Amino acid sequence: MTPQVIILNGGSSSGKSGIARCLQALLLPEAWLTFGADTLVDALPAGLRDSGSGGGIGFGADGSLSVGDTFRALDEAFAVGVAAMARAGARVVVDEVFLGGPASQDRWRRALDGLGALWVGVRCAPEVAAGRETARGDRMTGMAAAQAESVHRGVVYDLEVDTTHTESWECARIVAAHMSLM
Amino acid sequence: MTPQVIILNGGSSSGKSGIARCLQALLLPEAWLTFGADTLVDALPAGLRDSGSGGGIGFGADGSLSVGDTFRALDEAFAVGVAAMARAGARVVVDEVFLGGPASQDRWRRALDGLGALWVGVRCAPEVAAGRETARGDRMTGMAAAQAESVHRGVVYDLEVDTTHTESWECARIVAAHMSLM
Amino acid sequence: MTPQVIILNGGSSSGKSGIARCLQALLLPEAWLTFGADTLVDALPAGLRDSGSGGGIGFGADGSLSVGDTFRALDEAFAVGVAAMARAGARVVVDEVFLGGPASQDRWRRALDGLGALWVGVRCAPEVAAGRETARGDRMTGMAAAQAESVHRGVVYDLEVDTTHTESWECARIVAAHMSLM
Amino acid sequence: MTPQVIILNGGSSSGKSGIARCLQALLLPEAWLTFGADTLVDALPAGLRDSGSGGGIGFGADGSLSVGDTFRALDEAFAVGVAAMARAGARVVVDEVFLGGPASQDRWRRALDGLGALWVGVRCAPEVAAGRETARGDRMTGMAAAQAESVHRGVVYDLEVDTTHTESWECARIVAAHMSLM
Fold first, then answer.
1. What is the DSSP string of C48-114?
2. Per-residue pLDDT tens over the stretch D24-46
3. Cβ of residue B137 closer than 8 Å to a chain C Cβ
4. Residue B62's CB: how many other CB atoms inside 10 A?
5. How far away is chain C from the Cα of A139, in angstroms, using its nearest Cα?
């Protein structure tokens, strides 16, 4: 089934957003939207944006993330909403960080039930992702290294790309080529 | 019915986003998400972001906006998705610009069918909105004046607020007070 | 002497940046640049951006700011540099927060020695500034209230504007009108 | 002479800003500020930000840039100001695009007279820079390719780095290692 949703999963600074934007350019004139973990975090009340204990999402000084029950429920509803956009005809590249590993994937699987989905793992060597985090300068130090491997554990993909030595543009071409073979 | 979705409609620089963020703060511990026209525009492929003729959304030098068929279809799917988030339990403040006036409202009405919705008009005198557009410095000059009145024509509200002489925070309190009476 | 530098001093969320952008628009075709406290903070190494104790600038949970020796020295050099731009022919609107009150003003006075300077106080009632801080959603809660009055203590101005009930655009016109009379 | 100013010159999306931020992290506890072409563009009146003909800076649909007389004069004053910050004790990484090639370098040379300066060329293969421009999604398409080689013609460096196959972090280490040998 031709995918209606592409789910990119990878750690912070692994290059997911760059691949998503390159995919959008490559897949034109088909119009693919892109949403992701950052879309939801930006949509939160400010008071839940740095408060894992208060039910929201919290950023530890070491780059760790803690996630409260309120955030988890909103995250579930967000996935349901993105799936509904796809059922209504929009094609969507989802740019995600599976903090819960296979549990996060199950959440999206339930939401996307009946839709064609392409699961893509976006890997990057932890030390390279950490260097890119420093180069970006707008993320908590430590998130890249903390998430680089943990978000992939137990997750099953249709294909994986690795940005350690491959540009976002090339990774996007690999994903697009895979789609044309489906 | 207690609203699950609050729809703020107003022109560019009328103060909708500020009211949305103040509502989020006021309504805590209830966690309200906020999405809007900007969320969708940011999610578009770059190639559709300044191309009304190409089916996307185009920004005229005079502050006018042109909207193509592709954008219109995505916009419809976006509303369906936001409604699905609300049905899945998330409460949402929608921050919108009804470029199509009553047709835009009908689109949201269909999407929100069966949900409790509060329709709020956010007005601002055109010359004041234009001054705020200059003060922000990140919007096309002319959008505020072009949209200030046109987006309200034929639209029906539960209540209206006017930011010309009233702060966002006060407008948000008026909306929240109205909700507690429903 | 016609001013070559306009120094706007006020607390966080008092409306300085909006007035600066409106002044830039009003004073065209004269080309005025605008720099300020945010320019310097953005130019800092990330490691000094939230570390008052490490010599940089630190943001307390209550909206207070602590400033270390390293930051103070860079701040001094920054003022000297902005003054040198003005001596080289650029006109500059400085958008500042005098955390040190009169000591901050003295620092700028020394730097601007021999240049025409217009000192403008930008006031805003603390509760209104706090509401605008919530509406912006991108600043530490509490900074607006903490700075609203303290940054003006002991500072001497050529004129003052108050954004509590006056739009940025109007405040900018008042400043521009004052300049044409000098 | 130990450099007080590091000048990174390269085309759009060549990776200069990332190298600048990595240098800031590597050189701590020395506090290096970073300013660049974007600092000046952000400081311009909005009316000069897309108007090459009006004396400001203009962005062509093909990624070309046109620069007017007003912009050129402000650019000169900006360099003088940055140099004055360095003379006042701040160390500065300048992140620049020499649109005028050797003429741009001469402008900075005059401004930095008497200061220790390290001239670094930041190269990137045009097709790779173009892919990164697409991945960023926030720059005019075509600027990366248009500038990749032209900004280096006739410019003389102390050292050059190439981000085509080398991470920003590694490039920053090469620059820092060179400095420790001076």
1. GTT-TTTTSEEE-TTS-EEE-HHHHHHHHHHHHHHHHHHHTT-EEEEEE--TTTHHHHHHHHHHTTT
2. 999 999 999 999 999 999 999 99
3. yes
4. 11
5. 10
Averaged pLDDT, C73-102: 97
Residue B50 has pLDDT above 80, yes or no: no
What pLDDT is stored for residue C50 in this prediction?
75
Enter the ipTM: 0.95
Question: Chain C within 8 Å of D132 (Cβ-Cβ)?
Answer: no
Q: Is the pLDDT of residue A50 over 80?
A: no
Query: Which residues, in sequence order, are CB contacts of B10 under 8 Å at separation 6+?
Result: B16, B97, B121, B122, B123, B124, B151, B152
Query: Which residues in chain B have their CB less than 8 angstroms from residue D49's CB?
Result: none
Q: C88 at the D interface (CB within 8 A)? A: yes
Interchain proximity B168–C25, CB inside 8 Å: no
Rounded to an integer, what distance in angstroms lies between the CA atom of residue A144 and that of residue A174?
23
- Whole-Å CA distances, C72 to A117, B162, C44, C79: 54, 43, 12, 11
| Under 8 Å between Cβ of B126 and B154 | no
Exposed e or buried b for every residue in D133-157, given b needs 16+ CB within 10 A? bbbbbebbbbbbbbbbeebbeebeb
CA distance A61 to A65: 9
A40: left (phi over 0), alpha (psi -120 to 50) or beta: alpha
pLDDT level of residue C60 (50, 70, 90 thresholds): confident
Q: What is the 3-state secondary structure (H, E, C) of chain B?
A: CCCCEEEEECCCCCCHHHHHHHHHHHHCCCCEEEEEHHHHHHHCCHHHHCCCCCCCEEECCCCCEEECHHHHHHHHHHHHHHHHHHHCCCEEEEEECCCCCHHHHHHHHHHCCCCCEEEEEEECCHHHHHHHHHHHCCCCCCHHHHHCCHHHCCCCCCEEEECCCCCHHHHHHHHHHHHHCC
Tokens read off for A161: 């790309």
Which residues on adjacent β-strands are paired with residue B152?
A: none
Q: In this complex, which of C29, C39, C88 lies closest to D80 when CB atoms are compared?
A: C88
pLDDT of B45 higher than 70:
yes
d(CA C118, CA C52): 31
The span from the CA of C137 to the CA of C161, in Å, is 24
Check if the beta carbon of residue B159 is closer than 8 Å to that of residue B143.
no
Nearest CB partner across the interface for A81, out of B31, B45, B84: B84
Other beta carbons within 10 Å of D158: 16
Give pLDDT tens digits for D130-177.
999 999 988 888 999 999 999 999 999 999 999 999 999 999 999 999
Answer for the pair A4, A116: CB distance below 8 angstroms, yes or no.
yes
Q: Which residues contact B8 (CB under 8 A, 6 or more apart)?
A: B16, B19, B20, B36, B93, B94, B95, B96, B120, B122
**C170 contacts B135? CB cut-off 8 A:** no
> What strand order describes the sheet that includes A32-36?
A32-36, A91-96, A5-9, A117-123, A159-162
C122-134 pLDDT, tens digit each:
999 999 999 999 9
Residue A28, token pair as written in the block: 């034109």
Is the pLDDT at C179 greater than 70, yes or no?
A: yes
Whether residue C1 is predicted with pLDDT greater than 70 in this model: the reply is no
Give the residue carrying structure tokens 């800076």: D57
Q: Is B89 on the interface with D (CB under 8 A)?
A: no
pLDDT digits (tens, 9 = 90+) for B136-150: 998 888 999 999 999
Contact by Cβ (8 Å): B12, B118: no
Smallest CA–CA distance, residue A101 to chain B, in Å, is: 22
